[in-house]
Amino acid sequence: MNISDIQTAIREEKLDGWLFFDHHRRDPLAYRVLRFTPGSMVSRRWYYFIPAEGEPRKLEHKIEAHTLDPLSGTRSLYAEWGEMTARLGELTRGAKSIAMQYSPKCAVPYVAMVDAGTVELVRGLGLEIVSSANLVQYFEARWTSEQLDTHLEAGRRIDQVRRAAFECIARRQRAGERVTEWDIKQFILDRYKEDGIFIDHGPDVAVNANASNPHYDPSRESCSEIRRGDLLLIDMWGKLERPDSVYYDITWMAFCGEKVPDTMERVFGVVREARDRGIQKVERAVSDRRELRGFEVDDAARSYIKEQGFGEYFFHRLGHSIGADIHGTGANMDNFETHDERKVIPWTCFSIEPGVYLPEFGVRSEVDVFVDENSARVTGEKQEKIVLL
User: Fold this and answer.
1) Using CB atoms within 10 A as the burial measure, which of 139, 153, 341, 363 is most buried?
2) Which of 19, 99, 102 is closest to 59 using CA atoms?
3) Could you say which residues of the chain have pLDDT below 50?
C-alpha cells in the first residue's frame, strides 16, 4: 500500500479522508485496497483512517490489538462501546467530509459494504459520508501495462476459438451431423484448455429463443440442436492461465443458412448501432478530455434502442467493468439496473453489450473498450455483419 497515492486520490476527490471499517471480514475491498492480511482474528470492530494530509490512525479492540499491525499509523485502543465511539471521534478529528464503502440508496451495490448502523454512528460524530466508489476503482480497477498485454493476448486466442467454433458448426451441418449447443460449448472449452485460457463458467451457446435469456447456459441434459435456419449467439469470455491476468469478453451472432431473414437483420442492425453509439460516447469524451460517468454511456446506447421501438426488450445494463474477475470493480455502463455515477478513468476496461431479446430470438453484440489517458479503443474485432454458416 502506498499511503501517498491514496492521499493524493483523496485530495483529488476533495475529501478530508477515507475511513475503513470491518467486522468479521465483511469488507473484502478494505483488505484489497489496503493490501494487508489481519494480524489476528476479526471478531471485533476495527477502524483505519487515512486523512488527506498527515499520518494514518488506527482504532482496534484491546483483545485484538494487533489486527492492523501490517499498516502504518498511530494506534488507539478501546474496550467498551462508549469508549469506541469517543475514540472514533478522536480518530477522525479535523475531518468534515470522508469516504466510506457506502453507496447512497445502494446505487452502486458493489461498494456498499458498510452497514447502515455504522453509517449512522459515524454521521452522529458530525461527519458527512460520501461513497468511496471512485476511490475504490482507482485502486482496484486500473490495469497495468502487463495486464493489458494479457487481455490482448487472451483476445487473440479467444477470437481464434470463436472462428473455429463457427467453422465446426458449418462443417458438421454440411456433413449432415447432429450438433447441439452443448456440443459447441464443449468444443470451446476443449480449445480453451489447449490454448491456456481460463474460464470460471460458461460459455453461452444459444439458438433462437434461448438467446433471449442473457444468462442461458446449456447443459448436456438441457440444450437445443443447432439446425439450418437457426440464429445463434455465442458469448465467450476468458483470461490467460497466469497470475494477474485479466478477462476478455465478447458476444457474436451467426445464422445457419445462406441469407439472414429481414427481421433478424433489422434487429442486429439496431443492436450494432446502439453498440457503436456507446463506443463513440466514450471515444469523444476521452478525446475532448471531458469527465464521463458510467450512466451516460448506457444512456447513449439505450436511447437509440428505445427510439427504434425495442426498449422493453433490452433489460440489462449496457456493460460491466472487466478485470481479474469477469465483472470487475470499476464503473459499469449502467443507468438501468443501477444509476452508476462512477467516473470512467484511465487504464480501465469495460464491456459494451446492448441486446434485444424478443420472444422468438435474441441478439447481442459485445465488445471490450479500454481507456487510457489519451484514447479509448475496442480491444478486439467488432462484428459488423451476422456470420453466415
Assistant:
1) 363
2) 19
3) none
